Amino acid sequence: MRVHICAVGRLRAGPEKDLIDDYLARFDRTGRALGLGPVQIVEVEDKKNGGMQAEATLLGRAIPNGAVICVLDERGLVEPSPDFAGRLGGWRDQGRGDIAFVIGGADGIAKDLRQNADHALSFGKMVWPHMLVRVMLAEQLYRAASILSGGPYHRA
After folding, report:
1. Reading across the β-sheet that carries 2-8, which strands appear in turn?
2. What is the pLDDT of residues 108-156, one digit of tens each?
3. CA angle (57, 94, 149) in 5-degree steps
4. How far apart are CA 156 and CA 141, in angstroms?
5. Residue 100 and residue 65 in contact, taking contact as beta carbons nearer than 8 Å
6. For residue 156, is it within any domain?
7. What is the pTM of this model?
8. pLDDT at residue number 152
9. Is residue 155 part of a domain?
10. 49 falls within a domain
């Protein structure tokens, strides 16, 4: 199952990018044997300042046809890492070819895109900067692959 991270904004060189690259490289190595990956990051930018709806249109174009859509949203489900791993493995086992994790901009994700999602995931009740959400998602993808493979990374 191919993994797409569809996100608003451009990530520049720096510590966040270094962390994302490291975790996604680990995910690709671990996930390959599990039928997970590779990961593709698709960044969109609303240069006309059209707001959430314009961002939603751009994000919608970035999502592959037929993909499972999982939005990262503060109103989403807060779930333990083993449950997230099980969900990811379940989508893979259902034969879904693509999953798109959607990360909105500073104002979040437009209501219509949220409502059309297959799943909404939250990393807690606090609001996180969207660039840090990318880091946390990359780490959780690697953690999920480690859990599914029986690896030692997740100690719970």
Report:
1. 39-44, 2-8, 98-103, 68-77, 119-121
2. 999 999 999 999 999 998 888 888 999 999 999 999 999 999 998 888 6
3. 105
4. 16
5. no
6. no
7. 0.95
8. 87
9. no
10. yes
